[in-house]
Amino acid sequence: MNKLLQGAVVIAALIGLAASPSQIYADDSFKDLTGVQEKEKIESLHARGLVQGMTGDEFRPQAALTASQGVTMIVKSLKLNLDGIAFIKKPEAKDVFTRVANDAWYAQPFIVAHYNELDIPASIEPGRTLTREEFIHYLVQGIERTGAYPLPKLYIQIKDEASITLSYQGTIERALVYKVTALDPEGNIHPKDPISRAEAAAMIYEAVAFVESHQQVKSQP
């Protein structure tokens, strides 16, 4: 190999080492995110290995988010685990959930979610679509398992508050304070609407940013 070619190889290698995660994964982006508002957030999470597509090159952003996908997103992105929990025997999904098979690809995230006290019903159907309020409820509970966070006393008026399931009201209000989600221009949260994969990913992105920013502050001397 001549010296000129050797130099070009070395430069190319150095450029590759200096590339940002988004650059490194540029060729691995999803092909169905053109025009999608949440595109950058989805690609950022994917580059970090925090969300996956429905296929190798499709995220399917407008598809409804299933319970199995939502629980897996939350557990994986917030790095919830079973560390520090002692078990007499290895926990299995069927010990807790009536419709989650022990060998399902999402079984472990459901186990982790349960033992981290996410309020997921034992009878949940993994393949059914989650509503916005359900996903927000589980996500905020996941956030709060990562640490104690300051909660300023703010009153946020939610126009369709009467539609929120009573047991989810507190977590939805905290999600707004944490800025994990936001009201629409008319001041509604649309709690009973199905949540899309893109919208869920955007909330995951904000949740991860919230947790990491507060953990960085705590780690400073």
UniProtKB/TrEMBL annotation:
Q: Which lineage do the record's taxonomy fields give for this organism?
A: Bacteria, Bacillati, Bacillota, Bacilli, Bacillales
Signal peptide, first to last residue = 1-26
Alphabetized UniProt keyword annotations: Signal
State whether keyword Signal applies: yes
Sequence ranges assigned to domain SLH in this UniProt record: 25-88, 155-218
Is Secreted one of the keywords? no
Name this polypeptide is given: SLH domain-containing protein
